[in-house]
Here is the input.
Amino acid sequence: MAQGQQELVFAPLGGVGEIGMNLSIYGLGDGRTRSWLAVDLGVSFATEEQLPGIDLIMPDISYLVQERKNIAGLVLTHAHEDHFGALLDLWPRLKIPVYATPFTAALLAAKRAGEQGAPDIPVTIIPLGGRFKAGPFDIELVSMAHSIPESNALIIRTPCGSVLHTGDWKIDPTPILGDVTDEKKLRALGDEGCLALMGDSTNAVRDGRSPSEADVGKTITDLIKNARGRVAVTTFASNVARLRTVANAARAAEREVVVVGRAMERIVQIARETGYLDGVQEFRPVDAYGYLPPSKVVALCTGSQGEARAALARIAEDQHPEVTLSRGDTVIFSARTIPGNEKAVGRIINGLIDQGITVITDRTHLVHVSGHPRRAELEDLISWVRPKILIPVHGEALHLSEHAALARRCGVKEVVQCRNGDLVRIAEGHAGIIDEVPSGRLYKDGLILVEADARTVADRRRLSFAGSVSVALAITDKGQLAADPELDMIGIPERDRDGGSMQEAVEDAILETFESLPRKRRGDPDAVAESIRRAVRAAVNERWGKKPMCHVQVLTVL
Ligand SMILES: [Zn+2]
Ligand SMILES: [Zn+2]
Here is the structure.
């Protein structure tokens, strides 16, 4: 690169090679120093089996912390958790300016109000379709249809050229709520010249076009009209268009909507304040449920992912204080099950069916549509924008490679497949991976953020499979046992398969091992502990076929 020449680079720090925890950065500079623009800061959800005790996974932002002084700002494309869920936890390490549209900012404020000690993040509110500057970046929002209000693509204009960062989007000519995807602005970008497109790959494996929210509306209206007993609908609270769809369907069937679950109440309130429920009838509070006749009620519930503490799981287990369902009632799952949640959702569905409740899911009825573009929609976008370079993001390996293949078929000249931590040159010269930046994961463990390679979680997983044995030994200065060993076993079977006592077998192993140690070695507490630890694990393994964790404490007494 020539002296003083500007270079534009891109690096995903999350969300590429996985669905979740989106974080991308764009860098502009001469290669030695760069100004950065960050886009989104999301989380992924962990499953209990993979990571016991961990609820949330976040991108490791150590590189951004290091470059903090050079970051011009962070733009949030929309308020889904995989795009903004890590902000409250990670912003205090960065303290950079944050830009968002009104609905996203309102959801962030509500989230902050619900979390003790959450930081007060100053957010610059940008109107829909607005244009603003952050450092050397000139950013323009493009409204895109999606499954939450105010999803935005970003046109990022730089001296090296313009980039389209799509965020999450689809094409829906009848989205029920909010703006349609701004085709005119995207075509204008194509005319002006688009250097690179960073695009949502979630549904790149699916042919055709995704159905419209209006089609879902028709199905749900029919289902509610024909239902005899009570109806409960569960969906993502943030899908305000869906809340509207359910409200319209309820009104058509002359039923009242009762809002059940704190997250649902919160979003309904925000959607009222921001005008996204204008013209929709008032909803009833949860205590109205009890006195409305079964044929006059639709309960709008949280818990579409099988979350144990959410409304639907509690209703299904008859644990909800106000809301009950019984034989002849109907539950509509108006949401996709996020991979990893299938078992929890399946348990609830089966439990409801066993109680004689009719359950309707998107496997048999069009009661949900995805908010992401299928192939024909991806092709439309490419034909409108005509990018020189395309980089698939927001997807697992299969989604990314299908998106890349589609882009090549559409005639995009340079397609770069990268992964989290790759630094990709966009301009000048050929696009390609030129370096790596530090990337990784953080876990939210209770109230604490830990590095993904911290031993704590791995230890907990091992404990859950094979239990633990702890041993305490007191040795005199002459190398004799001062008392019988103390033994504590957690999660270990009491008897082996021949009926022998595991406790006795372990005690025998401890004593035999100790006796067999040469006198000199007995004087070294660390050496004693290590020998006993090995012997205990071997003794349990021989009888159980598993090696527990083992902790040995050796005390020297006088
Ligand atoms: Zn989204
Ligand atoms: Zn997303």
